[in-house]
């Protein structure tokens, strides 16, 4: 086989990877043991972290990329894809994660941003990126920078689904609104939301974002996950919701089954029974401005 | 003839498979008389001429096949099966991973993630046995390969890493993702092999 026939890191390979995650649950894990529990439960991928978001909140200070030792421990423990988080704009953390063999990089507001002006130029990387968004403009700006997957931001580490719902309803509502517009109006709207016009038009034509769209930030129960699926997401990230619950193994399996049967209340009732305590929750309205993560990197 | 194709819709890139089969059926002149449906439960298989098992995570799909009581119904499904990537893993008789409960429909040993991690995922032009001379643009995403096959399995293509396309009777299994490239020659060949 001649090497010039091979191409790595193309847009198709990046978006294709994201597409393979559809209908799945991606779980935050902090060590090999948790990664194995997630894989056994049927997670499609794991997010390798030093701390889950609720512990990042408690710790305060500057949250950075995980220790490479930790990431390698998790990569070696499982056969499913392993993702890793880099700070917003921190392209060197992203380079390190790519060198470690991480399968997808999350440029995440859960960590402390490294650049308040620019996001990572994601097109320079071979591995795909997922980025957070709260509305259509933010999602399309990230896609324009090279994100192969979007996750609605929600409010990480709260166990409160309200922001995840708000962000998904906002994006879906904006796309529905586009359908009633003519092209000129769409171009005008693109200017208003600071997004490239061609991506706005593509959303209108397809009736959805041009890349896979997951939900994140506050999903704590099987019903939360199923609700997000019914609102139209392609899959869910569960952060603190699994390993901060009283029975992580059962919670992990229950959320996987809930995502698979998201339209079936009988199954949801069955899998939700006797799960023990979900993670402790936080009221969004009681967070101080500097405790809100979703406003980082718009 | 009314043609109904099912796509196993437990996890993975289901909608791309549905669209690819719709395109292939249209090419073959069945645009108006065919349907492509999502298969989640055993009863969905009734009346299907063929089933597609999409790419995704084989450990996850395997678990959900068992959970949704689809294991025996798929094993006994009388129609054709078109399996890609994770689907190929599930079709095998032997996979070195106890978490994957394979269907054992094609006598072959499959290695998961044989190309390595996502950064090693690649696109390449492939020569496929029995297809016209134009190469096929194959999209490999954390792809498996076939390490060895039984004598009754026909090898359609291979690369340095191993065998990447096989056929056995009414079954076709591929390491790569023809549903992602805009080339429906393999879908059409599979449908024709079923007499469609």
Protein model, in words:
The complex is a heterodimer of chains A (298) and B (196). Chain A has 298 residues and is of the alpha/beta class. Chain A has 13 helices and 9 strands. Chain A has an 8-stranded parallel β-barrel with strand order 2-3-4-5-6-7-8-9, surrounded by 8 helices. In chain A, helix 10 (222-230) runs parallel beside helix 12. Chain A is globular, with a radius of gyration of 18 Å. The mean pLDDT of chain A is 95. Chain B has 196 residues and is of the alpha/beta class. Chain B has one domain (3-193): Class I glutamine amidotransferase (GATase) domain (Rossmann fold). Chain B has 5 helices and 12 strands. Chain B has helices at residues 14-27, 58-67, 71-75, 86-91, 185-193; strands at 3-8, 34-39, 50-53, 80-84, 94-95, 108-111, 122-126, 136-140, 145-149, 154-159, 162-168, 171-174. In chain B, the strands form 3 sheets. A 7-stranded mixed β-sheet of chain B has the order 2-1-3-4-12-11-10. A 3-stranded mixed β-sheet of chain B has the order 5-6-9. In chain B, helix 1 packs across helix 5 (185-193). The radius of gyration of chain B is 15 Å and the shape is globular. Chain B starts with a strand and ends with a helix. The model of chain B has no long low-confidence stretch (mean pLDDT 95). The A-B interface holds A 1, 5-10, 12-13, 16-17, 19-24, 39-40, 42-45, 79-81, 98, 101-104, 126-128, 256-257, 260 and B 9-16, 55-57, 59-60, 63-64, 67-68, 85-86, 97, 99, 112-113, 116-125, 139, 141-142, 159-160, 177, 180-181.
List keywords for this structure.
heterodimer, A: 298 residues, alpha/beta, eight-stranded parallel barrel, 13 helices, 43% helix, globular, B: 196 residues, Rossmann fold, seven-stranded mixed sheet, three-stranded mixed sheet, 5 helices, 22% helix
């Amino acid at each position: 086989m001649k090497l010039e026939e091979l191409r790595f890191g193309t847009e198709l390979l990046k978006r294709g990877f994201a597409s393979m995650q559809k209908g799945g649950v991606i779980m935050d894990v902090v060590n090999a043991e948790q990664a194995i529990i997630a894989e056994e439960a049927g997670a499609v991928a794991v997010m390798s972290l030093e701390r889950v978001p609720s512990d990042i909140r408690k710790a305060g200070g500057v949250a950075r990329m995980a220790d490479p030792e930790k990431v390698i421990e998790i990569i070696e423990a499982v056969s499913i894809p392993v993702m890793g988080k880099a700070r917003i704009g921190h392209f060197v953390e992203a380079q390190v994660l790519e060198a470690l063999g991480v399968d997808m990089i999350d440029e995440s507001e859960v960590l402390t941003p490294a650049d308040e002006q620019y996001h990572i130029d994601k097109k320079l990387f071979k591995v795909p990126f997922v980025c957070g968004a709260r509305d259509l403009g933010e999602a399309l700006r990230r896609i324009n920078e090279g994100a192969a997957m979007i996750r609605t931001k929600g409010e990480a580490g709260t166990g409160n689904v309200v922001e995840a719902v708000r962000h998904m309803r906002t994006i879906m509502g904006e796309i529905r609104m586009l359908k009633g517009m003519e092209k000129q109006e769409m171009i005008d709207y693109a200017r208003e939301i600071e997004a490239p016009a061609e991506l706005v038009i593509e959303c209108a034509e397809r009736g959805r974002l041009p890349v896979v769209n997951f939900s994140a930030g506050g999903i704590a129960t099987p019903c939360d996950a199923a609700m997000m699926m019914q609102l139209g997401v392609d899959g869910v990230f569960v952060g603190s919701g699994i390993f901060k619950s009283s029975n992580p193994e059962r919670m992990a399996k229950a959320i996987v089954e809930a995502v698979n049967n998201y339209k079936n209340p009988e199954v949801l009732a069955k899998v939700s029974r006797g799960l023990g305590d979900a993670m402790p929750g936080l009221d969004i309205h009681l967070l101080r401005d500097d405790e809100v993560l979703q406003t980082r990197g718009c | 003839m009314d043609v109904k194709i099912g796509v196993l819709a437990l996890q993975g890139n289901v909608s791309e498979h549905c669209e690819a089969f719709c395109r292939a059926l249209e090419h073959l002149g069945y645009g108006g008389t065919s349907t492509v449906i999502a298969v989640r439960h055993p009863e969905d298989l009734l009346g299907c001429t063929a089933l597609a098992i999409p790419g995704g995570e084989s450990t996850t799909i395997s678990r959900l096949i068992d959970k949704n009581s689809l294991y025996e119904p798929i094993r006994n499904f009388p129609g054709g099966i078109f399996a890609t990537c994770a689907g190929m893993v599930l079709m095998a008789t032997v996979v070195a991973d106890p978490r994957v409960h394979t269907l054992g429909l094609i006598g072959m040993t499959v290695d998961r993630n044989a190309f390595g991690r996502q950064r090693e995922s690649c696109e390449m032009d492939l020569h496929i046995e029995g297809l016209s001379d134009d190469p096929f643009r194959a999209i490999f995403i954390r792809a498996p390969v076939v390490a060895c096959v039984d004598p009754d399995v026909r090898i359609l293509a291979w690369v340095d890493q191993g065998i990447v396309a096989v056929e056995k009777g009414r079954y076709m299994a591929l390491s790569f993702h023809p549903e992602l490239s805009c080339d429906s020659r393999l879908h059409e060949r599979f449908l024709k092999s079923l007499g469609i």
